[in-house]
Amino acid sequence: MRIVTVIARVLLGLIFFVFGLNGFVGFIPMPPLAGTAGAFIGALFSSHYLYLVSAVQLIAGVLLLLNRFVPLALAMLAPMLANIIAYHLTMQLEGWPLAAITTLLWAIVVWRYRAHFTALFVQKAG
After folding, report:
1. Model pLDDT for residues 13-61, shown as the tens digit of each residue
2. End-to-end CA distance of the chain
3. N or C: which end of the chain has fewer CB within 10 A?
4. What is the pLDDT of residue 1?
């Protein structure tokens, strides 16, 4: 199971490193989007919010690849993945397989580091 976790961590790190870096450099061509998806991505781009999203993805990807602060990287990616899944389920269905695979990789790594997240599930704190 440890080898599976390492493979999942490295793949997850590569995915978010590449897509985070793409937000700044733009080496992956993106066709123009129409409809709601185009309006949404356009709003992210014109407001420069996309740079924040790309920075979080890039930093989390680097942390996963370096095997440093992995629980922090996983916590940073949780809301990213929630938004990616929501985007693909509601606006652009074509990209859902990569979103599903990425979420599965994230779940595998989270399962390995689940002990670091137990404090979040305390019913009464203090």
Report:
1. 999 999 999 999 999 998 888 999 999 999 999 999 999 999 999 999 9
2. 35
3. C
4. 80
Name the residue ranges covered by the structural domains of the chain.
Answer: 2-27+45-114
Residue 85 CB-density burial (10 A; 0-12 exposed, 13-18 middle, 19+ buried): middle
Determine contact, residues 33/41, Cβ cutoff 8 Å. Answer: yes
Task: Name the nearest CA neighbour of 64 among 17, 4, 112.
Answer: 17
d(CA 7, CA 48): 33
Is the Cβ–Cβ distance between 13 and 62 less than 8 Å? yes
Confidence of residue 11 (pLDDT cuts 50, 70, 90): very high
Q: What's the mean pLDDT when you consider all of the chain? A: 95
| H helix count then E strand count, the chain | 5, 0
